[in-house]
Amino acid sequence: MKNIIKPIGIIYSQNKTPKGTPIQSSTAKNISGVVEVYPEFVEGLKDLDGFSHIILLYYFHLCKETKLVLKPFLDDEFHGVFATRAPCRPNPIGLSYAKIEKIQGNKIFVTGLDVLDETPLIDIKPYIPEFDYNEVEKIGWVKKNVNKLPEAKDDGRFAK
User: Could you give all domains of the chain from N- to C-terminal order, each with its CATH number?
Assistant: First the structure.
């Protein structure tokens, strides 16, 4: 393996503990935070201010253990980890969307954070609706539970 994944920064958020944190970006619209990029990566922020939203890739640093079959937040039944967005995975990598409010130096001020405070940042990508699917045919087991999303919060089941 040529490159080892390492953090490029840290995400600071109003979400101080797993319990009570929104489980998806779409339900965290009023939660703000700061994405701080380490100095050696600041040049990579060039032209990011031309986008309104970003995709954050990060490391779920508080996961208890990897589980291949688990009960996700929106269901009482067990599902394979790859059929969920649960944090405790073989490679505990998270993905969230956030709205850019402003960029100052190495800091991106954002809203819509469903990420915990002091989460290690792995990468940033611009969100471009035309690049991503916005219509899909199936959403699996989630279909019967998606109505629970607006009220769903992390209950701490996956954290150390």
Answer: 9-62+90-150 (2.40.30.70)
Q: How many CB atoms lie within 10 A of CB 18?
A: 19
Predicted TM-score (pTM) of this structure: 0.91
What is the pLDDT tens value at each position of the chain, 160 positions in all? 567 899 999 999 999 999 989 889 988 989 999 999 999 999 999 999 999 999 999 999 999 889 899 999 999 999 999 999 999 999 999 999 999 999 999 999 999 999 999 999 999 999 998 998 778 888 899 899 888 888 888 888 888 7
